[in-house]
Amino acid sequence: MTIPDVRDAEPALPAFSPPGGFSPEAARADVPILHRTVNGQPLAWLDNAATTQKPRQVIEALAAYYGAANSNIHRGAHTMAREATELYEAGRAAVASFLGAEGPETVAFTRGTTEAINLVAQSWGRANLGPGDDILVPVLEHHSDIVPWQLIAKETRARVVPVPLDATGQIDRAAYADLLSYRTRLVAVSHASNVLGTVPPVKEMTALAHRYDAKVLVDGAQAVAHLPVDVRDLGADFYVFSGHKLFAPTGIGALYARPEVMAAMKPWQGGGNMIESVSFDRTTFAPPPHLLEAGTGHISGVVGLLAALNWLTSFDRAAVTAYENALMAYAEQAMATVPGLSLLGSAPDRIAVLTFTLAGHDPATVADWLDRDGIAVRAGHHCAQPALAHYGLESAARASLSLYNTSEEVDRLVASLRGLQQAT
What we know:
Layout: H1 24-28, E1 37-38, E2 41-42, E3 44-45, H2 56-68, H3 79-99, E4 107-110, H4 113-128, E5 134-138, H5 147-156, E6 159-163, H6 173-179, E7 184-190, H7 202-210, E8 215-219, H8 231-234, E9 238-242, E10 253-257, H9 259-263, E11 275-278, E12 283-285, H10 299-312, H11 317-335, E13 341-343, E14 353-358, H12 363-372, E15 375-376, E16 378-380, H13 385-389, E17 396-400, H14 407-423
Parallel strand pairs: 3-15, 5-6, 5-7, 7-8, 8-9
Antiparallel strand pairs: 1-2, 4-10, 9-10, 11-12, 13-14, 14-17, 16-17
Helix pairs in contact: 2-10, 3-10, 4-5, 11-14
C-alpha cells in the first residue's frame, strides 16, 4: 500500500508573469545583504515595511564620506567643510526634486518620519491649535501619526478625531466628509498604510480639507519607496518620510512644507545652526529650513540618502511600480492557497504589504517558524493598534515586498507556511 504524500493535495501555485521593463535581479545585484544566509538558508527579506536593505552605492558613499570628507558643515572656511556642506545641500536639493517640491528651501532634515511629525506638532501645532479645534486622523495611521497629535491636543485643548475605515480597509470617505468642518485645523493621513497597504485618495482628501482652510500632513514613510510623489500635485501642506524605508541609512528623514507654511514655522529646538546671532539680550534666527535644524545634523545620513535617491531613480520608476504590483498580486493568490491563512485589507489601491493571520498559530510563532527557513517577516501590532482593532485583532504577521524581491521568495514563504500547518 502506498501512503499518499500530503503534498499531492496542495493546490498548485499560480503562474507569475512579470511585466517587462524591470528585473529584480538588477536591484539584487547591488544589495550585499541579500546574498547572505540565515539558519543555513538564503535570506528572503520580506520585512521591507520595517526597513529596507541598502545598496552598495549607499554603503560606499558612507565609507567615502567618513574616509575622505568628514567635517561639520555651514560654518567652516576650510576645504573639507565646504565639501561636506556641498554634499549636505546636494542631498536637500535631491529630496526636493524627488518630492516634486518648489525648491530646497522647503525641505528640513530630521531623524525620520516620527521626528518630522513631532516637529510639525510642536512648531506649527503649538502656534495654530487651540480649544475646540479638531485634528482628523484616520484609524489606519501608524502610532507616530497619532500620539504626537494626542500630546499637542492635550496641551492646546484641541481634540483628535478618528476617521473610520470601511470593510476593505479604506478610509470611509463619507465619514471623512462629514467630520470635516471649520473646526478642523489639520488632517494627518498616511500616503500608504504600513499594516494594510491601503493607499488613500490623498489628493481628493487634501482638496476637501482645504475647502475648510485646514492644513494636511501626509505621512509618506511607506509610500516613497513604491509610489512616485509630487507634493504639489497632492496639495500637501506637509509631507514627511524616513530614509531607512527608502534604501538609505537609519536616523535620517525629511520634512517638506509648502513655502508659505515653512516661512511661518516657529523654532522647536534651540541651539547652533538655527540662529543668525545670539546675545543675552536678543537672539535672531536663521530662515527656514535651517531654523528647524538645531545642532549638527546627521551629515553622513544625508550623504547616504543622496546616494539612495540616485540609486532608486536610476531605475524606471513606472516599470518598478508595475513589477511590484504584479508581484503583490501573485503573492496574494499564492498565499490564498495556504489553509487557514487570512489576509487583512482588500482596498483596490495598495502597496505590497501583506498582513495576515494563520489559524491556530500566534503571529510570533509564525515569524519564528519562517525565520528557521531564512524568511524574515514581522509580527506584532506594527505600531498600528487601532487599524488591527478594526479587524478585532491585537497582532498579526506581515510580509512586505520591495523591488528586489522575487516570486521565488514568495514561493518559499508559501511552502514554509504550508509546512507549519502540516507540522501541527
